[in-house]
Specification:
The chain is of the alpha/beta class and 405 residues long. It has two domains: 173 residues, nicotinate phosphoribosyltransferase, CATH 3.20.140.10; 168 residues, Aldolase class I (TIM Barrel, Alpha-Beta Barrel). Strand 10, helix 13 and strand 11 form a beta-alpha-beta unit. It is elongated and about 80 Å long. The relative contact order is 0.16.
């Protein structure tokens, strides 16, 4: 017996369309009611200044990485307002050197013109910034190890381009998903699943088939934990693929891991004594800040990082009025007035001042500071250059090299 589906449930996948997001149909109902009341009471022309801040960061992180600003620009294009924002990929702080909440984005215009877009604005940057921040933290721990984003199977597939873009900006070297790779204009990176080995009935046949079918530019990385001990399978892989073997990947489940660092050391030892010192060890499964550093020391060359990135804590950004018709006005817990965030590019110290104040000196080195909030939208027109993704990523890596975890 078939079930009739109402018009509102006709989506095959539960994703809002571009038009629905842009038109404000993904907003919270109280913004609709607010705009109706303002119009009825002839207050729809009131001009405000609003700030986006993060009062705190997850897990006491000392800094975050702003991500999703390209989508913010697309969201507000055509809306008659002005927006000042930190550039995409900027390190930001919840509070500045003097413990003042730091504005990340500033919006000015008629409240009725943009109030319906507050909800999607926050949604665009909260999750993406969380993913980028988590990726940047893992990059600092991993040093020069190869990092690949493996996490799209832990999220709604409609979000895979956003997740992998944010992960790459934060410091991942590549991504496994087709959609994510297309978004960052790179080739997807991956090896082989356990299912391939199981369908062949044994590891050796699967490795040999992989070598015979895959084009030469695909690295020969053998998965070595399907049936036997990892060390045993690593030795078998060298015998099957010989000099073609580029690397081995270990994805051992937690029920079999034991002392995972020692497993890595054993595999490294057995490869080395057989003349395969150039064969690299890759690991995946259950990786996070707590174990990547020690696994790298044990001999891991590259990491496929999944859930800890795709399910990274979101940044709890909030958007609040700080000025009404040119007068400072803010709710409890917020500071009124239009502000600017100033940064010492050498010390990475931020100072928040009223926008019209002079630029402060760095409290650590007495050097000059630069304004971080720069024009993004002017009267509905995008005025900032949206840089290529590799430029954003390089900017992130340069910044995080100057700060501690």
């Amino acid at each position: 017996m078939s079930r009739k589906i109402g018009v509102s449930l006709m989506r095959k996948f539960h994703l809002a369309s571009h038009d629905e997001i842009k038109s404000g149909n993904t907003t919270d109902i109280y913004f609709i009611r607010t705009r109706e009341i303002l119009k009825e009471k002839q207050l729809e022309n009131i001009k405000v200044t609003m700030e986006v801040t993060a009062s705190s960061l997850p897990k006491k992180w000392p800094w975050g990485i702003l991500c999703g600003l390209d989508e913010v620009a697309n969201l507000f294009e055509g809306v008659p307002i002005d927006i000042f924002a930190m550039p995409e990929g900027s390190v930001f702080y919840a509070r500045d050197y003097n413990y003042v909440k730091e504005p990340i984005i500033v919006i000015q215009g008629k409240y009725s013109d943009f109030c319906l877009l507050e909800t999607p604005l926050l949604g665009l940057i909260c999750q993406a910034s969380g993913v980028a921040t988590k990726s940047a933290r893992i990059r600092k721990i991993a040093g020069n190890a190869q990092l690949i984003s493996f996490g799209i199977r832990r999220i709604h597939p409609g979000l895979s381009p956003m997740i992998d873009r944010a992960a790459y900006i934060g410091g991942m070297d590549g991504v496994s998903s087709l959609s994510g790779a297309k978004t960052i204009n790179k080739k997807p990176i991956g090896t082989m699943p356990h299912s391939l080995i199981i369908l062949f009935g044994e590891q050796m046949k699967a490795w040999k088939a992989y070598d015979e079918v895959m084009p030469n530019e695909v690295p020969r990385i053998a998965l070595i934990d399907t049936y036997y001990d990892e060390k045993t399978e690593a030795i078998l892989a060298t015998e099957i693929l010989k000099d073609k073997l580029y690397g081995v990947r270990i994805d051992t489940p937690s029920s079999r891991k034991g002392d995972f660092e020692d497993i890595i050391r054993e595999v490294r030892w057995e490869l080395d004594i057989r003349g395969f010192k150039d064969v690299k060890i890759f690991v995946s499964g259950g990786l996070d800040e707590e174990n990547i550093g020690s696994l790298k020391k044990a001999g891991v060359f590259g990491f496929g990082v999944g859930t800890s990135i795709s399910n990274a804590p979101t940044i709890d950004f909030a958007m609040d009025i700080v000025e009404v018709e040119g007068r400072p006005s803010a709710k409890r817990g917020k500071l009124g007035g239009v502000k600017q965030s100033w940064r010492c590019p050498e010390c990475m110290v931020d100072i928040v001042r009223l926008r019209d104040d002079n630029s402060p000196k760095c409290p650590l080195c007495s050097g000059s500071t630069k304004p971080m909030l720069v024009p993004l939208i002017e009267n509905g027109q995008i005025v900032a250059d949206i840089p290529e993704i590799d430029s954003i990523r390089k900017r992130v890596l340069k910044q995080i090299s100057k700060i501690n975890l």
